[in-house]
Amino acid sequence: MYHCVPATAPHILGDPYNFRFEQKADRIIQTFEKDAVIRTFWLEGHGHHPAGPSDYALQGYSTARYDKGTLIVETTKYTFDPGGIEDKPPMVPSSPLKKVIERYSMKGDHLVVEATLEDPQFLTQPIRFSFEFEPTKDQLVEWPECDQEQAREPLQYIPAGQLKYGLR
Questions:
Q1: Please, are residues 41 and 30 in contact by the beta-carbon 8 Å criterion?
Q2: With bands split at pLDDT 50, 70 and 90, how would you rate the model's confidence at 35?
Q3: Would you tell me how many other CB atoms lie within 10 Å of the CB of residue 111?
Q4: How many CB atoms lie within 10 A of CB 114?
Q5: Cβ atoms of 114 and 129 closer than 8 Å
Q6: Domain assignments of the chain as residue spans, ordered by start
Q7: Which pLDDT band holds residue 101 (cuts at 50, 70, 90)?
Q8: Phi and psi of 110, rounded to 5°?
Q9: Fold of 11-162
């Protein structure tokens, strides 16, 4: 976040910004206000190509399926991310072995998301997250271009002992 790198799942779900889904025949597009992040969930059984050796990306490679009204998204193929497990100081990185499983379901008119983050390189056991969202009719706000200098400004106020790598 201090180098204009967008947040990844599951942390982006915990940020107080709106997002939306767009259902297509063979995929679901998830668009966030925050960092203008767009994720694609390739629906199983629709002929999408399986993840290949070069499909690593900051947001990973996501496949999805529906099971009794629940959307299940599995994301792998993440690149190394300095804040991929904990994106607030002291930050904890994630490796290309990171895997996130998200389960989206409805509870009345609220969207409930249960997410599990695994990374055997940095974690001894999975971490579980739970989020609940109210519907809104608000349009997504266009996210401004990130300014590197401005993005690093908050580092000046974090005590040096809390900076994981001692970098300002």
A1: yes
A2: confident
A3: 17
A4: 17
A5: yes
A6: 11-162
A7: very high
A8: -95, 145
A9: Lipocalin (2.40.128)
